[in-house]
Every structure is written in structure tokens, then in C-alpha cells.
Amino acid sequence: MVWRKTLGILTPLSILLLLASPAHAAIYCWKNNVAVEECAGSIPAEYSQKRIVVKRDNGTIIRIIAAAKTPAELERDRILKEKEAIKEAKRKKRERLDRILLDSYATERDLVLARDNNLNGAQAAIDRSKRRLKTLQSNQNDNQKRAADFERTGKKPPKHILDELDKYRRLITAEKRRLETLEIDKKEREKRYHTDFERFKGLKSGRIKYGSL
Q: Residues near 213 by Cβ (< 8 Å), separated by ≥ 6?
């Protein structure tokens, strides 16, 4: 062990430790840059970030001060803290959803009835969209026939027929997109109700813990 009397400015940490020690007799030990332990009555500035062992003059250890974290360690801690925050947010959301589920339905039958009503409504919207699309396509076919009649006689279809063709093309395209959206929405509802049903059964039976991820 290398003993060295160190002169210089004490760090705030050193001052606090000295004042807290009986008779201000604390000895501070650290390892230098070649891993050799050194001890003194104060901590040199260049070693203030290292692991410090605080001892009494008889060698009894009073306290161990962990080394300051490296930038890499600080970044790791930041990432871990961020992950924990995300996990906690998910847990709170899961608790909220579980509470809504349990407050909304008393029995499995209640949930099934709600599911059937909801999906029937979704299917009704799909059926209406299909009927609209069929009507639009029928009207477009009529316009195309009228335009073809003019073309067979060597005449250009009048502007109002061309405008109708363009209008119905746009309406048909929009209705197809609407129908596709409605069908996707129904599938998502079916999936959501299936998930809710399994979750509800698990919560009611105790197989799934309230708020668990």
C-alpha cells in the first residue's frame, strides 16, 4: 500500500465526509492509474471520480463510495430507465383496459351479445356499400353504352356523357376504397372481440392477473 500526503483543494464530497467523521480522522483510499492503492486525508481531484474507500485511521472501513459512471454506463442506465418507463406505461394502459372490460360486461354472454350486435352493424355497412357500388357500376355501364352508340356512328360522345363517365369513375373508385376500409374494419373488430373475450375469461377465472402484460 502506498501512503501519500495530498495537498490541494478538497472536493465538496471530501469536505462532507471529513465533517461527518469522528475527529475528522477519515482516510480516503483509491487506486491510481496503475491500479496501485493510495490513501490520504483528502481525495485528489484527478481521482475524485474513482471508487473511494473511506477508513478510520485504525483501518476500519466507514464507507465505500462507488466510482462515477462512465458515459457508456450512463447511456445504458438511460436506456434501461426508458424501457422501464415504457413498460410501466403499458402496464397502466393494460390496467385501464382491464377495468373497462370488467365494468362493461358482467358475463361472457354479455360480451358475446355485444360482439354480435357490433359485427352485425359492421356487416350492414358493408352490405350498403356493396349495393351503392353495384348501382354506380350499373349507371356507369349505361353511360358507356351511350358513349359507344355515338362512337359506332363515327361521332364523338357529347360532353355531358363524357363528364358522367368521369364522375362515375371517381365515385366507383371512392366506393371501392370505402368498401375495402369497411371490410378491414370488420376484421379488426372480430380480432379485437376475440382478444377481449379471451382476456375477460382469464380475468374472471383468475387465470390472468389484473393489469398483467
A: 87, 90, 91, 94
